[in-house]
Amino acid sequence: MARDDPFDSLFSLEDTYYEEGFKQGFADGVSQSGLEARVFGVEKGFEKFLDMGRLQARAKVWSARMLPPSQEEQGAPQSLAVDDHVGLSSQQPPTLPTLQNHSRLSKHVHTLEALVDSTSLSMRNSDDSVGDFDDRLKRAQAKVKIIEKLIGEEGATSRITSDGRDAGVKSRPLRDEANMEDFGG
Predict the structure, then answer these.
(1) Contacts for 65 with CB less than 8 Å, ≥ 6 apart
(2) Helices 103-115 and 127-151: crossing angle, nearest 10°?
(3) Ordered DSSP codes for 50-64
(4) CB 67 within 8 A of CB 76
(5) How large is the greatest C-alpha to C-alpha distance in the chain, in angstroms?
(6) Cα(185)–Cα(183) distance, rounded to whole angstroms?
(7) Could you count the other beta carbons within 10 Å of the beta carbon of residue 1?
(8) Residue among 129, 135, 101, 102 nearest 116 (CA)
């Protein structure tokens, strides 16, 4: 007579709990991964639009610094005043030098303005829209490098990271005492 042993279920108890935990963990992972993917997508989208905004600001400044053809012929002032309310004194406010309106420079600046124009950027989250945005961002970054080389402002943006920090500056904690091991140079 074959009788079932009441302790047989104890021998497979570990496997039973393992399978139950795996199923529960898999279900939780599926629900959480969608949320994490959405948060990651929002963060990356924000970073890309922030970069595009920085490029748009630079394009507007360069466009404002270029002399219109009519002012070039009349002998325009050497610089444009910057509205700065930080240090009110009897001195003249800081100024930005004007840029000579060369045809190559103006062509590149106008192309950059068209690439970063916020009214023509799509806000949809489709593959085509995201691909178009990424392509325009890369082309705009390339135009900025060309314009920087033309006007002699090389490396002004290459050191700024996406979180706004200057990559050329290394931050080290301040210490009261000098340690020989911390000597960097």
Answers:
(1) 80, 96, 97, 98, 99
(2) 150
(3) HHHHHHHHHHHHHHH
(4) yes
(5) 116
(6) 6
(7) 2
(8) 135
User: What pLDDT is attached to residue 6?
Assistant: 74
139 in Cβ contact with 115 (< 8 Å):
yes
Select from 63, 68, 55 the least CA-distant residue to 143. 55
**Residue 88 CB burial class (10 angstroms; 0-12, 13-18, ≥19):** exposed
Q: Quick one: pLDDT at residue 48?
A: 93
Q: Across the strands, what pairs with 95? A: 81
Token duo for residue 87: 């240090």
Inter-residue long-range contacts of 44-51, CB under 8 Å, 24+ positions, other chains counted: 47/162, 48/133, 48/134, 48/137, 50/162, 51/137, 51/141, 51/162
Element (H, E) at 140: helix 127-151
Residues 105 and 84: their CA atoms lie apart, in Å, by: 27
Specify the length of the chain in residues.
185
Q: Contact, 146 vs 62, CB < 8 A?
A: no
* Two structure tokens written together for 22: 């795996």
Q: Rounded CA gap, 93 and 83, in Å?
A: 7
Orientation of helix 127-151 relative to helix 13-65, angle to 10°: 40
Task: Note the pTM of the prediction, 2 decimals.
Answer: 0.60
State the pLDDT at residue 97.
79
* Token pair recorded at residue 137: 């961002």
CA-closest candidate to residue 140, choices 177, 99, 111 = 111
